[in-house]
């Protein structure tokens, strides 16, 4: 008979702790603010060029572009997965444009993005935009 009161006390203690954790979680959840603005991780800009760069990082077209690379399978499987991912992203209302190198020419690029299409290099008249060239240009941007 002495085990039953001890078991009841343990259950009551467990329920009490769960109630305290639930209240603490609720209080933390009310005051928790999650931000995904990467500008908060940068030092305070001091020059006009730095201010422009920080503004463009947060509000410019580059802040809304996501480049993905798929690897680890045959080219055919990667192409199929890539097309499936593009289709899934294009079906989401919060995604303005999901492109996967689809042909369609300049008309496939929205009008408001067209001024930015050659920002990677001013030499596209003389140098083809192939994978090696694009990789080199992006690597230079990362280093810069």
Task: Describe this protein with a few key phrases.
0% strand, mainly alpha, 144 residues
What structural class should be given to the helix and strand makeup?
A: mainly alpha
Q: Radius of gyration in whole Å, from Cα?
A: 26 Å
Q: Segments where pLDDT lies below 50 for 5+ residues?
A: none
Shape: elongated
Helix content: 40-55%
Give the SSE string.
HHHH
Mean pLDDT: 80
How many H/I helices?
A: 4
Percent of residues in β-strands: under 5%
- The span between the termini is 75 Å
- State the total count of DSSP E strands: 0
Profile the largest sheet. none
3D architecture notes:
This protein is mainly alpha-helical and 144 residues long. It has a domain at 108-144. Helix content is 49%, strand content 0%. The protein has four helices and no strands. The model has no long low-confidence stretch (mean pLDDT 80).
């Amino acid at each position: 008979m002495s085990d039953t009161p001890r078991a009841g006390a343990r259950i009551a203690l467990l329920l009490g702790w769960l109630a305290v954790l639930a209240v603490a979680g609720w209080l933390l959840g009310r005051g928790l603010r999650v931000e995904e603005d990467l500008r908060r991780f940068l030092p305070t800009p001091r020059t006009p060029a730095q201010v422009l760069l920080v503004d463009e990082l947060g509000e410019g077209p580059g802040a809304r572009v996501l480049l993905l690379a798929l690897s680890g399978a045959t080219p055919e499987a990667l192409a199929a997965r890539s097309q499936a991912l593009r289709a899934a992203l294009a079906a989401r209302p919060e995604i303005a444009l999901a492109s996967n190198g689809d042909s369609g020419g300049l008309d496939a690029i929205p009008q408001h993005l067209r001024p930015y299409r050659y920002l990677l290099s001013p030499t596209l008249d003389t140098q083809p935009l192939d994978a090696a060239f694009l990789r080199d240009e992006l690597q230079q941007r990362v280093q810069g």
